[in-house]
Specification:
heterodimer; A: mainly beta; 4-stranded antiparallel beta sheet; 11 strands; globular; B: mainly beta; 0% helix; 53% strand
C-alpha cells in the first residue's frame, strides 16, 4: 500500500529557530496538504498545495509558514521563527484528485523549547 | 461556516458490545465525509468515507457508517468491539471548493473494558 512518508518523526528546536519538516507524498498524487494537532486537541488544516501553488490556507498559516515542492518528490513545511505554541504534531497528506485517496503520513512531533 | 461536531468526548464500552460514535456536520452542499482512527502517538488511519451512493458504507476493521442527510449525521458503528479498537476516532468533512481541506471534529476517545 502506498504511503506518505514524513521525516523526522521527532524534532526539538529552540524558540526563534527555523525548522523544515519534510514529506514525500504518494508518487502519483497531485494535491498536498499540511495539518497540525496540538497535544490533546483536534486536527487543524494549515494549507493545501496544487500545481505548484497554495490553493487554500488557514488563519494559522501566517507569514512565519511557507511550503515548497523543491523537486518532483518532496513537499516541505518551513516555520521561519518557531514559537512555543508551534509545538504540535504536524501531518502531511496527499490525494490523487480532489478528495480521492486522501492519505496521511505518520506525523512529525515538533517540540519548541 | 462548515463544522463537525462529535458530541461524545469519551465513550467506554465492554469488549464484545456494540458501538456507535456520533458525528454531525454543518455544511450547505453535498458532504464528503470521513472517519479516521488514531492510536496514541500515531498517525491518522482512514476507516471509511462517503462520497455518494449507498448511504451505508463499509470500512476496515469491521466498521460501518450511515449517512443521514435529514439529520446531518454520519455515525460510526461496530457490532462487536475488540480491545484493540481502543483509540481516538475523528469524523471529518471534506471541502473540495476550499482546496480539498478536511475539517475535523474534536474526536471521541474510545475505551474498551474487558
Amino acid at each position: 500500500e502506498p504511503e506518505v512518508t514524513q521525516t523526522p518523526s521527532h524534532q526539538v528546536t529552540q524558540m526563534g529557530q527555523e525548522v523544515i519538516l519534510r514529506c514525500v507524498p504518494i508518487s502519483n498524487h497531485l494535491y498536498f496538504y499540511w495539518y497540525r494537532q496540538i497535544l490533546g486537541q483536534k486536527v487543524e488544516f494549515l494549507v493545501s498545495f496544487y500545481n505548484n501553488e497554495i490553493s487554500e490556507k488557514s488563519e494559522i498559516f501566517d507569514d512565519q509558514f511557507s511550503v515548497e515542492r523543491p523537486d518532483g518528490s518532496n513537499f516541505t513545511l518551513k516555520i521561519r521563527s518557531t514559537k512555543l505554541e508551534d509545538s504540535a504534531m504536524y501531518f502531511c497528506a496527499s490525494s490523487a484528485d480532489n478528495l480521492n485517496g486522501y492519505t496521511f503520513g505518520s506525523g512529525t512531533r515538533l517540540t519548541v523549547v | 461556516a462548515q463544522s463537525v461536531t462529535q458530541p461524545d468526548i469519551h465513550i467506554t464500552v465492554s469488549e464484545g458490545a456494540s458501538l456507535e460514535l456520533r458525528c454531525n456536520y454543518s455544511y450547505g452542499a453535498t458532504p464528503y465525509l470521513f472517519w479516521y482512527v488514531q492510536s496514541p502517538g500515531q498517525g491518522l488511519q482512514l476507516l471509511l468515507k462517503y462520497f455518494s451512493g449507498d448511504t451505508l458504507v463499509q470500512g476496515i476493521k469491521g466498521f460501518e457508517a450511515e449517512f443521514k442527510r435529514s439529520q446531518s449525521s454520519f455515525n460510526l458503528r461496530k457490532p462487536s468491539v475488540h480491545w484493540s479498537d481502543a483509540a481516538e476516532y475523528f469524523c471529518a468533512v471534506g471541502l473540495m471548493e476550499y482546496g480539498n481541506k478536511l475539517v475535523f471534529g474534536a474526536g471521541t476517545i474510545l475505551r474498551v473494558k474487558s
